[in-house]
Amino acid sequence: MDTTQDWKKRIVFWAGAVCVGLAAFVFAIGSEYVNVLYHRITNFSPLFPLLLAPAGFALVVAITHKFFPGSQGSGIPQTIAALELQDMSLRDKLLSLRIASGKILLTLLGLLSGASTGREGPTVQIGASIMHTLGRWAHFPSHDLERGLILAGGAAGVAAAFNTPLAGIVFAIEELSRSFEQRTSGTILIAVMIAGVTSLSLQGNYTYFGTIHSTINFGVEWAAVFVCGIAGGLFGGVFSRTLIAGSRGLPGRLGVFMRERPVLFAAGCGFILALLGLLSGSTVYGTGYHEARQILEGSGAMPESFGILKMAATVVSYLSGIPGGIFSPSLAIGAGMGLNLSHVLPFAPAGAVILLGMVGFFAGVIQAPITAFIIVMEMTDNHAMVLPLMATSFIAMVISRLICRDSLYQALAQNFIKRFN
Questions:
Q1: What is the dihedral of CA 17, 186, 177, 26, to 10 degrees?
Q2: Residue 367: which of 175, 179, 235, 177 has the closest Cα?
Q3: Residue among 79, 119, 160, 104 nearest 288 (CA)
Q4: I want to staple 131 with a disulfide (CB 3.0 to 4.6 A). Which of 25, 149, 287, 381 is the partner?
Q5: Would you give the DSSP letter of residue 75?
Q6: Which of 270, 274, 273, 263 is nearest to 58 (CA)?
Q7: Which of 41, 38, 158, 21 minimizes the C-alpha distance to 109?
Q8: Most confident by average pLDDT, 64-73, 176-185, 377-386
Q9: Dist CA 84 CA 247 (whole Å)
């Protein structure tokens, strides 16, 4: 029979899941608002980012170092690192309400500066921080914090951010924990359901990129699966390896400057981003959500160089040290790559090739193929593409591992673990 303490823990836990959904909703609305605002600024003057991006990047990094250390970057590596750290005080430096609030504020400031970053990765750290903090307040036992609350908070963050509940569960299993224990399955599932329902009730029932009906037929069209899988693995592996190497420090004098003058280095990154923005016709700024949707729907002209310029903009934004994720930008890069490949694969539907490009690059980056194809499938409501998306994801993962042996998020998490040990 359940005790009063059991019910207390359940109520705290359910309330935490609701809070994750609310936080994801507020973050999504804020991200959309600043993204639209920034594009209005660039429409007014494409040259304005040459001033705004360096100043904004410098300000965000200065605030991060002074008030919110541990909030830089994606947020997923911090969540993974927190799961592995045994010292509660060290874990609190990565997961706390202060970090969660800073993550939201600084990611929005970064987007307002034109950064090529996303909100989905940060939402994972925000969700894990909320659940971890509530668990501490309720005096939950340590194993529940490690495999229940933190995993559930991260999974709920993905589910609420993308409105993809199944992807949230798989992400917790495949990426955050790299293993699955039966005793945490109910915790994760309930958190995803509650956070997803909360977000759904506020934002409505939507798919992230709308409904895409394109599909690949068996036969010659399946050649697109292999081409997109190989290309996605190659470019995704190079992208991941670049981020991992950059996070460990750049070589030579530039690396010294990066360590000793992080604010000035961030300003320089902002200036490079602005130059990339000018080259791309202001298409590489922000999350990449609208650009990816335009590519999928064929509703707007994108430069042929969009994919490679968006990749460069995302690398520069990440290396600057500002908070922000790479989920949305990676999907946009993949859409740009798919658009390019659709021109050399005329025998396959262009919309389907773009989807395969998205999942191929995304899987190549995160090396979590099940998460990759489920996210893309749920975001586009295209169940007819399950097999092609799945095959492309696994091909991309295999190719990516030939180039980058370490999983991106696991490698970045080790940087935080080493810093505290």
A1: -20
A2: 175
A3: 119
A4: 149
A5: S
A6: 263
A7: 38
A8: 64-73
A9: 20
The pLDDT tens digits for 37-46 are 998 888 888 8
Per the listing, tokens 């690192």 go with: 81
> Is it true that 4-203 and 220-420 share their CATH fold?
yes
In the CATH hierarchy, which top-level class contains the domain 4-203? mainly alpha
Q: Let me know how long the chain is.
A: 421
Please check whether the domain covering 220-420 is classified as CATH 3.40.50.300. Answer: no
* Cα–Cα distance, 8 to 115 (Å, whole number): 42
- Classified as helix, coil or strand, 76 is helix
Q: Is the dihedral of CA 81, 83, 87, 93 positive or negative?
A: positive
Q: What angle do CA 303, 74, 119 make, to 5 degrees?
A: 65
Q: Can you give the pTM of this predicted structure?
A: 0.87
Between 221 and 353, name the one with better pLDDT.
Answer: 353
Rounded to 5°, the CA angle 229-234-240 comes to 115
Q: What tokens does 132 get? A: 């971890």
Q: How far apart are CA 90 and CA 70, in angstroms?
A: 11
Written as one letter, the residue type at 266 is A
State how far the alpha carbon of 218 is from the alpha carbons of 43, 221, 227, 369, in Å.
44, 6, 15, 21
Q: Do 18 and 198 form a contact (C-beta atoms < 8 A)?
A: yes
Which amino acid belongs to residue 9?
Answer: K
Using one digit for the tens of pLDDT, what is the confidence trace for 267-286? Answer: 999 999 999 999 999 999 99
% of the chain surpassing 70 pLDDT: 80
Rounded to 10 deg, the angle between the 306-319 and 223-247 helix axes is 20
Strand partners, 118: 325
Domain ranges of the chain: 4-203, 220-420
The amino acid present at 202, given as its one-letter code, is: L
Look-up: residue for tokens 């005329």? 346
State the average pLDDT over residues 56-75. 91
CA end-to-end span of the chain, whole Å? 42
Residue 86 is encoded by which pair of tokens?
């045994």
**Euclidean distance between CA atoms 404 and 420, whole angstroms:** 25
Q: 3-class DSSP state for residue 73? A: strand
